[in-house]
Amino acid sequence: MNDFSEFYKTLEVDNGLLVMLMVMSVFVAIFHTFILIGLYEINLKPKWLFFVLNPLLIGLCSLYENRLAALVAIILFLSVFVLGIIGMIVSVIRDGYQSSKEEDARRRRMGKTPLPIWEKILYTFSGLLFFGFVFTLGIPYFIIVVFIILPFLTSLKPNNKKRFYKFQRTLPTSNIRSVAMGLAEISGNVKTIEPMFSRIKTKECIGFLYTIEKVTTDDEGKDSYSLESSETICKPFYVQDKSGQIKVITNDIEFIDFEIDEQYQSSMKRYTQYLLKDNMEVLLIGKVGLAENNEPVFQKEAIKDVFGISPVASVENYNTMRPILQSAGYFAYFWVIIIALIFLTPISIKNNTIVFGNINLDLPFQNSKPVKSVTDFYDNIYDSYKKTEPVENEYKQDADSAEVTVAPAE
Q1: What is the pLDDT of residues 170-221, one digit of tens each?
Q2: Which residues fall within 8 angstroms of residue 143, CB to CB, at 6 or more apart?
Q3: Hey, which residues does 297 pair with through a beta bridge?
Q4: Of 169, 258, 163, which is closest to residue 208 (Cα–Cα)?
Q5: Which end of the chain is more exposed for a tag (fewer CB within 10 A), N or C?
Q6: DSSP 105-137
Q7: In sequence order, what E strands does 158-293 have?
Q8: What is the sign of the dihedral through the CA atoms of 74, 77, 80 and 82?
């Protein structure tokens, strides 16, 4: 408590610096908004809440005492760090749970059993150990890994949809009559071989994607959805263009960017279906192979692990929007790096001036010490920062010995 009192007394802030802190709090509001909406998935209303709240808090506190206003500004800045770290952990757990649901659904579609609970717990525990280990390396390393490296690696995480559009950008659309064996892209109209009926309203179709999502409602009445199960069933069919037709073997086929055919919500669950119908114009990416009777067929490309079908209109829309989405991704990643740099830069107030410290990425565990108090915790946080010795120390030397002389008597 005495340490806090001494720290509080050092927060001497004049009116000019107070205005500067209020302006900086607006930039902090950008991070507050980004973290709550992006990481916590909170429907923030209104979106400009923190842009008004942050400077208003500092201004109101200054009416009582400028030191209190400076303390609130420091707390607002540190809250970005705390909310960001907790938000990353929450986001990883939520995404891991969602990925687990999707993986179970994919394995069921392939006729495999879902992963056992113990294996999922092991993966979760391993992830927590990884975060704990990175945190022990020191705050600078933790921020670099969590805010720069992990978001970049996550953006590179492969899935069938990414692979589908990656090959769609590079592969030429082949005529069915002259398509070569191996990985290929074809486009044409779907022709029914054997019809089937959908889950909802028993509509006649060639195939369907049927999903069940769990519905949760927050305090503001906003619904959020998490995938509970997913089922894709599709009969073999022909794809026909002006040059000819080819039979599609639909094992492990994935529906990509289909429009919703039917959707309803009941008993805190949402049911959605997407249909593949006769004469629909589609684009497929997979492999051209030979059936047992040497008939050319279109099927999954196992080596490249891609086999997708998408309406031509959806593919054209994606190609139109891709540059915009890519620019938005670069912009978001740029702000992630800015946030990481802000977290890494120590800021202090000395003689009514904001001082930005230097970042020193020392080797891990070089300056570690046991944490026995809050003061030790904050000391460990800033152990990697350069500390300059006070100027007066350079001149503080012991005086040389000198003889005592006595003045001669007159």
Answers
A1: 999 999 999 999 999 999 999 999 999 999 999 999 999 999 988 888 666 7
A2: 340, 343, 344
A3: 247, 289
A4: 258
A5: C
A6: HHHHHTTPPPPPHHHHHHHHHHHHHHHHHHHHT
A7: 182-192, 196-197, 204-205, 207-217, 223-234, 237-240, 245-248, 254-255, 262-266, 269-276, 281-290
A8: negative
Beta-carbon contacts of 293 under 8 Å, excluding residues fewer than 6 positions away, are none
Q: Where are the domains of the chain?
A: 2-136, 160-322
**Mind listing the pLDDT tens digit for each residue in 26-81?**
888 888 888 888 778 777 778 888 999 999 999 999 888 888 888 898 888 888 87
Beta bridge pairs of residue 355: 348
Half-sphere exposure of 175 (CA within 13 A, CB side): 5
- Strand, helix or coil at 298? strand
Fold of 160-322: OB fold (Dihydrolipoamide Acetyltransferase, E2P) (2.40.50)
239-275 pLDDT, tens per residue?
Answer: 999 999 999 999 989 999 999 999 999 888 999 999 9
* b/e map 280-310, b = 16+ CB within 10 Å: bebbbbbbbeeeeeeeebbbbbeeeebbbbb
pTM of the predicted model over 0.85 = no
Residues 6+ apart with CB under 8 A from 319: 169
The enclosing H or E element of 78 equals helix 66-109
